[in-house]
Fold:
Amino acid sequence: MTYCVGLMLNEGMVMLSDTRTNAGLDNISTYRKMFTFEEPGERVIVIMTAGSLSVTQTTIAQLREAIEDPEATPDTSIMLAPTLLKVAEIVGNQLASVRAEIDHKLSAAQGASASMIVAGQRKGGTMRMFLIYPEGNFIEATEDAPFLQIGEHKYGKPILDRVVKPTTSLSDAQKAVLLSMDSTLRSNLSVGMPLDLAVIERDTLRVTLRRRIEAGDPQFRAMSDAWSTALREGFAKITI
Structure:
């Protein structure tokens, strides 16, 4: 299992993913779940993945192959697609195709499943963010629902529901996703460090901040401790 979250705000987009993949308590590995595709000044796309590693790795590999194909077209390459909606369609179709192929090789009881968040902006277009389901269909982040989650999302959702709005600053947004991840890390052992953080400021058409947060990172630990203290103090002040 994993946890990935993306926020789409007036100022830009913030994405955070963990890196833990496990196939049992004695088989835990680290794999990147965030992938960036950039042509600075023209377009930027970030994809985060959750679910079956065989499905997600194959899908990302085939998307990269399509980009590098000399005969690539706007219908096959996410770096040539005319809109972010078309990007989501290409990714969704590829994900569904790979999942169906791997499902066919497995028994019904071992069916593979995966989902993705696709976020980005192209020159002349607006920022867009999509959650792509295993079947290839998708939903889009909106002003009413400015964040999307995949993987083990239930533990980190309450703080996002309470504090994230389209007007949230990028600085506060980073704090929100990190505390959302901290809540998930504390409640589910299938989500783990290190973390990958990416920020895309609106209209920059590039990733403006990348950060790998390792286990024991002093800044993340201080934030986690401060949040725990604030929760305990708030709890103590409430009377019934």
Summary: The radius of gyration is 18 Å. The chain has a mean pLDDT of 94.
